[in-house]
Amino acid sequence: MSNDLRTQFINHMTLHRFSRHTKKNYLLAVKGLAKFYNQPPDSLSNEQIQKYFLYLIEEKKLAWGSLNNIFCGLSCFYKNVLKWDETQFTIPPRPRIKKLPSILSEEEVKRLFEVTTNLKHRVLLKTTYSAGLRLSEVISLRPEHIESDPSRMMIRVEQGKGKKDRYTVLSQALLPELRAYWCKYKPGEWLFPGYNRKKHMGPTSASQAFHKAKKKPALPEAGEFIA
Predict the structure, then answer these.
(1) pLDDT surpasses 90 at 150
(2) Nearest to 154 by CA among 164, 165, 163
(3) Within a 10 A sphere around the Cβ of 213, how many other Cβ atoms?
(4) What percent of the chain has pLDDT over 90?
(5) Is the pTM of the predicted complex or chain greater than 0.70?
(6) Which of 81, 106, 112, 131 has minimal Cβ neighbours within 10 Å of its Cβ?
(7) Is the CB of residue 140 less than 8 Å from the CB of residue 158?
(8) Angle in degrees, 0-180, between the axes of helices 64-80 and 20-37, rounded to the nearest 10
(9) Does residue 154 form part of some domain?
(10) Exposed, middle or buried, 160 (CB in 10 Å: 0-12/13-18/19+)?
(11) How would residue 227 be classed by pLDDT, with cut points 50, 70 and 90?
């Protein structure tokens, strides 16, 4: 890249408040392309640039993040410095990676309950784990969804995953805490109401109850509260 083009590119990035790190990476992207063809970047075509990306993917085996960084740098240079009306080179979309949620061990779950001194939050967490509920399901529970008759011992989940109703087990160990919670808070319409008792607890508040407990010293590193 000529000194003039380099100066123009740096000035453009400076005017648009690019970070120092981004400037360095974008300049390296253009330099790498020019070095690959041993030609100045303003003499190259869309087709040549696309072949360069093919080389980076197939031969260099670059991770998508590194590839995207180079793509952004070259796009910025050709559109804003060389004033190309259209850049036709592309890269594949980011691969979708599915990660399994971390699962708490039995000991971690016990410690989670032990460090949660707020009764409402502890019952919320116990209900979530003992009944296998998602965050959106537990905060949407109403008192009538708890069927504590000895012949039933079920929790009704309305409009859960897939917008389907279902039943899940009401734990014998959970029932006494639910009763103690009911006597203390008298929740009303929602089992776990928010500050506005006409609405249920929000997902952010429920998630914070989990993360607050997880950060307490007695609990080792744990997984995520699944929404």
Answers:
(1) no
(2) 165
(3) 23
(4) 52
(5) no
(6) 106
(7) yes
(8) 90
(9) yes
(10) middle
(11) very low
For the chain, the domain total comes to: 2
Interval 72-112: pLDDT, tens: 999 999 999 999 988 889 998 887 766 655 667 778 888 88
Can you give the CATH number for the domain in which 10 is found?
1.10.150.130
Looking at the predicted structure, is the pLDDT value of residue 222 above 60? no
pLDDT digit string (tens) for 11-40? 999 999 999 999 999 999 999 999 999 999
213 and 116 in contact (C-beta within 8 Å)?
yes
E strand segments, 37-191: 146-147, 154-157, 166-169
Structure tokens that stand for 117 in this block: 């001194």
Query: Which run of H or of E encompasses 105?
Result: none
CA separation for the pair 100, 47 (Å, rounded)? 40
Spatial CA neighbour of 56 closest among 32, 88, 79: 32
Specify the pLDDT at position 77. Answer: 95
**Coil, strand or helix at 164:** coil
HSE value, Cβ hemisphere, 13 Å, CA-based, for 87: 21
Sheet holding 154-157, edge to edge: 146-147, 154-157, 166-169
User: With contact defined as beta carbons under 8 Å apart, do 119 and 180 qualify?
Assistant: yes
Range of 73's domain? 3-80
Amino acid at 25: N
Give CA–CA dist 188/124, Å, rounded. Answer: 15
Residue 32 vs residues 25, 49, 195: alpha-carbon distances, Å:
10, 11, 57
3-state DSSP assignment of residue 57: helix
Q: What does the alpha-carbon distance between residue 212 and residue 80 come to, in Å, rounded to a whole number?
A: 47
